[in-house]
Amino acid sequence: MSTPLDLSAFRRELHAHPELAGEERETAQRILAVLKALKPDGLLTELGGTGLLATFGKDEAGLQVMVRCELDALAIPEVNDFEHRSVIPGKSHKCGHDGHMAILTGLAEKLSNKRPARGRVHLLYQPAEENGTGAASVLADPRMKDRHFDLVLALHNLPGYPLGSAVVRKGAFTASVNSLVITLQGRTSHAAEPEHGINPALAVAEILAGSQALQHNVPEEDGLRVVTVVHVDLGSKDYGISAGRAEVHLTVRCWTDAELRQLEQEVQQLARTTAGKHKLYVDIRRCFTFQANRNEDAAAELVEQAVRSTGHALVPRAHPFKWGEDFGLFTARYKGCMFGLGAGEEHSALHNPDYDFPDALIPHGVAIFEAAVRQYLDG
Q: pLDDT digit string (tens) for 361-373?
């Protein structure tokens, strides 16, 4: 029998060498080197760009399960000084995708040692989750055209919950999220003679105030609406010039895709009305789209059973999480479930510059995934 993988060391190697969405070539190569030693029954590379799909089992007629993790890091400078800190300036794994990759690789090792007798398990290392383009790119890859999955699974670590506890809920698990870029074009003029130009500053102020008035940021209630200002760009640092152009960047999020479309329409109407009032040209574009992730009841029950059978605590969740996750594209197409895995009640929050995935969480994720997969394939 081969020497067991040191998943903590592997996770730390991935942590030290982060790559942003769409750039994860070296990350994929590091994973590929480990996967090849496990001799999967099928292996696709460069899937949807930089992704990998490793298949264990040869029964094409049986049930097909896909388990997914993410490859990409974030453009956040690391402030930690431990030995495995990021060696890439301005980039780091602050969402725990390095840990998710280690968990999936641990599952690959389990499946390599005991391959499914019925059905197959497909392990997807997906690129570009952080900007919402990775799942769509994978699904659009021609090699995925004739594939069907009977069940899709994923997890995300959750700081603030007890280490190793599992958060599972039926229905919506994550919000529907979109980003809007509102461009306002006026006309520059001399700062001493602003009357000869069209400065968008007042329009920006009205859009900011008006968009905040559209909110209903109460997660415990139906009809969640969150509008967050993430960036404003107005004019230039030239004190002799009255600004003639501005950009307002917002994220909007709701519990459902339909509610999000309504909120988007209201924000866009606000921007158009305000621009017309101030005689500005307006352009609005969408980006960073995340479809709401909805857990199918039977899939959630399967995960709950796996959590209990492995001795983990099951934590109920009254409402979805407000962040976006492009795994929602998979659950919109296939029956599936995304669940949360507690990273520690006092653990640093996701996307914080001092965050680091806890290595102690890796075996918990492997155990729950393996139990769910084998229970499903065994009927």
A: 999 999 999 999 9
Residues with Cβ within 8 Å of 201's Cβ and at least 6 positions away in sequence, in order, are 234, 235, 243, 246
Overall average pLDDT of the 85-99 stretch: 98
The model's pTM: 0.93
Residues ≥6 apart with Cβ < 8 Å to 20: 72, 73, 74, 75, 91, 130
Question: Domain-by-domain residue ranges, the chain?
Answer: 7-173+292-377, 176-289
Using CA atoms, how far residue 168 sits from 303, 309, 336, 341, in Å, is 8, 14, 12, 9
Give me the amino acid identity at 225: R
DSSP 3-state assignment of 70? Answer: strand
Kindly write down the DSSP assignment for every residue of 99-152, as one continuous string.
HHHHHHHHHHHHHHHS--SSSEEEEEEES-TTTT-HHHHHHHSGGGTT---SEE
Specify the fold of 7-173+292-377. Answer: Aminopeptidase (3.40.630)
CATH of 176-289, one of 3.60.20.30, 2.170.150.40, 3.30.70.360, 3.40.50.1970: 3.30.70.360
Quick one: 260 exposed, middle or buried, by C-beta within 10 A (0-12, 13-18, 19+)?
Answer: buried
Provide the total of helices (H) and of strands (E) in the chain, helices listed first: 9, 16
What DSSP element (H or E) covers 46?
strand 42-47
